[in-house]
Amino acid sequence: MIPASTAQKNAPEWQRELAEAVRDPRELLALLGLDPADLQDTGGGFPLRVPRGYVARMRPGDRHDPLLAQVLPVGAERHDIDGFVSDPVADRDAMARPGVLHKYHGRVLLVTTGACGIHCRYCFRREFPYRDANPRPAAWHEALEYVAARPEVEEVILSGGDPLSLADATLADLAGRIAAIGHVRTIRLHTRMPVVLPARVDCRLCAWLADTPLEKVVVLHANHAAELDNNVAAACRRLAGAGATLLNQSVLLRAVNDTANDLATLSRRLFACGVLPYYLHLLDPVRGAARFDVPVEAARSLLSEMAGRLPGYLVPRLVREEPGRPGKTPIAHRWESLPARRDQVQGGSRTP
């Protein structure tokens, strides 16, 4: 048997960084020069996990830092708020097989793992029954048989948890088995790991990703421009070099990114990293996350202001997930929230 210390020393860098993640809220505050005594409550049963590299992007001494707000447990998480429930997007109702969510035509989502590189306090699966519903690699055959039996399914989405919490050999095996299903054309990964732990995007990951014959889409999850440092930008370039199309989905969060400046800066920074804004989600009303909620009319106004500032390709679609719908529900912006601009243009091409 290999000693644990030796095994950890020989592990990929990202696994070592993940093993060293901060798990104690008091340590997190102390690292930022904040008084741990200010922590009145640790928020209940959803534990803290945050990589130290992500902590390094937080502003020292700022109790209201937008990155800190996303991960620090608070006592308000224990409060029961009407409308905030354990399964806000009805994942359990959509589970066709253990770990197989089939909500939308033409695509199936596999809950590949319950592990994440970071624990976000607004996570809509913070109470998901991973132990019962997550298929282990040895049991993936049942999930893949389900996909193989449905020729209308052209895209398989790997989610979790975070699929990039799994080892590359495991992911390469899964990707190969998905590619062997003739009617599947696209593999999509929903992941926060390149943002919170950019070392995860190493040569092993890029090798199997480049090797798969499937079309590749990687949907990142960044909520604030401060998350996107140079290491993240380099990780994005490596993913693009492996042939992946890069998109981003954000969650609109009060006291994190709920200003037009925050959102516009995020879109510009994403584009500089080679990533297109895709979705801006209204908060899924999961129990414990009510403090992050932004009212829909305020969200409309923010989107209108963004659309007035940015080219269309940098304006994400504002959406919410509603159980039973055939897709995400778009929330349209309203131009009347902005003063009209009536530039006179004679001829020429249309400007988006």
Task: Give an overview in words.
The chain is α/β, with parallel strands linked by helices and 352 residues long. It has 2 domains: 4-78, no CATH class; 95-337, Aldolase class I (TIM Barrel). Helices cover 31% and strands 13% of the residues. The protein has helices at residues 4-10, 13-19, 25-31, 52-55, 66-71, 130-133, 140-148, 168-179, 193-196, 203-211, 230-241, 260-272, 296-309; strands at 95-97, 100-101, 107-111, 155-159, 186-191, 215-220, 244-251, 276-281, 317-320, 329-330. The chain has a 10-stranded mixed beta sheet with strand order 1-2-3-4-5-6-7-8-9-10. Helix 8 packs parallel to helix 10 and helix 12 (260-272) crosses helix 13. The model has no long low-confidence stretch (mean pLDDT 91).
CATH topology of the largest domain: TIM Barrel
Structural class computed from helices and strand pairing: alpha/beta
Low-confidence stretches: none
Report helical residue fraction. Answer: 25-40%
CATH class of the largest domain: Alpha Beta
CATH architectural designation of the largest domain = Alpha-Beta Barrel
Total domain modules: 2
- Tally of individual helices: 13
Which percent range describes the beta-strand content? 5-15%
Give the helices and strands as they follow along the chain. HHHHHEEEHHEHEHHEHEHEHEE
Number of β-strand runs: 10
By CATH, the superfamily of the largest domain comes out as Aldolase class I
- Widest sheet, order of strands: 1-2-3-4-5-6-7-8-9-10
Largest beta-sheet characterization: 10 strands, mixed
Termini gap: 62 Å
Shape: globular
Could you tell me the radius of gyration in angstroms? 21 Å
Overall pLDDT confidence:
91
